[in-house]
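Possible regression after last week's pipeline update?

I re-ran a chain I had predicted before the update to compare outputs. Posting the input and the new output here so someone can diff against the archived version. Not blocking, just want to make sure nothing changed silently.
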Amino acid sequence: MLQVLNPATEELVATIPAATAADVDAAVTRAAAAQRGWAAAAPGDRARLLRRFATVVDAHTEELALLEVREAGHTLGNARWEAGNARDLLDYAAGGVERLTGRQIPVPGGLDLTILEPLGVIGVIAPWNFPLPIAAWATAPALAAGNAVILKPAETTPLTALRLAELALEAGLPEGLFQVLPGTGPVAGNALVEHPGVAKIVFTGSTRVGKSIMAKCAGQVKRVTLELGGKSPNIIFADADLEAAAAATPMSFLDNSGQDCCARTRILVQRSVHDRFLALLTPAIEEITVGDPLDERTQMGPLISRAHLDRVRSYIPDDADAIRGKAPEGPGFWFPPTVLTGVAETAPCAVEEIFGPVAVVLPFDDEADAIRLANATDYGLSGSIWTRDIGRALRTSRAVRAGNLSVNSHSSVRYWTPFGGYRQSGLGRELGPDALAAFTETKNVFISTEG
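New output (post-update):
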């Protein structure tokens, strides 16, 4: 059985049966049968059902948001955005169903064309940090491309996924087309990865687990999309609007309590403005409101679990020089906003993904030094560049090895633009106009006109 705890109170929210390998096998059989009918349906009919699914989700956004608050500890504002993001993804994917077209390629002696065909059954393994929207990132385009989906949510956050599956049936999607199987990674997750009837795995989580999944999929030459860890830079040049950069920096790594692979946890500041920037940043960090996620004034909630809280704490030396905010005491998995200063650029807190409300400040000398520091990590997911010089912004954007960069902002995710990482931050791209094609096979057909 899986126990779901409220991270803000440590109270038991629900107890959910854990799926077995036999449950996964039965789900794949049901999904394969449903997928054949779904793929054969007219594109317009699939699009209408996905739009209806989006409409049903829209009618339940507040319910889904409150579930996300209870199981994941997200602030109410964040949870409402997440429910809306799932709705928007379904609506956006529905718009692509009838535009999933092939090409006609000129060849001598006949006609050559390509056809995009669905893969079959897609296994989606979703994380606990953004359980609802990231589940939708894969589910919406996979369904739109004509596939069936089996979703395994994280052990600690299955509730929104289970409700999403109920809403899919309410919207009229065929039985078995979209199934949710809560369970543990070693049992249900592993069975999904190794099942020969699953054509592709979409995994979001740690780089360590992602490598293991990739190795297992290699044995079957099974497709994978991996969205893994990050240690993203926030590069602040001397010519930047320092007031704006300092005001925006706290939530660049404190959003979702730092449990975000896009979090800008390495704050790189040009040495000539280092002290001035810290003077501006200090009150901004100290004023962050940490507390009850249901209070609309709250900016940051708790961490997901006691074990994760202990892991975050382990990165902070007792005698560390730091800017610290405030956090509640008592029940709940609370950790204050923390910015470490005076640390070595090779210290564990500066190079390893902490996945909590902790950032480090590292000074740099010039543009080349900033790029060197930004790339001094195994990851490459996201990052920000603050400068008034458009030439520098473009040069730095080209030089930083990351998949999603923002200039004078911290925006990483839009459902209509591509998302994914370089290096050990992942493999493949999600979201945006090409997401549907990632769930298809390209078939080439040549028709001879000779003789």
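Follow-up from reviewer: compared with the archived run. The two ends are 67 Å apart (CA to CA). Marking as no regression found.
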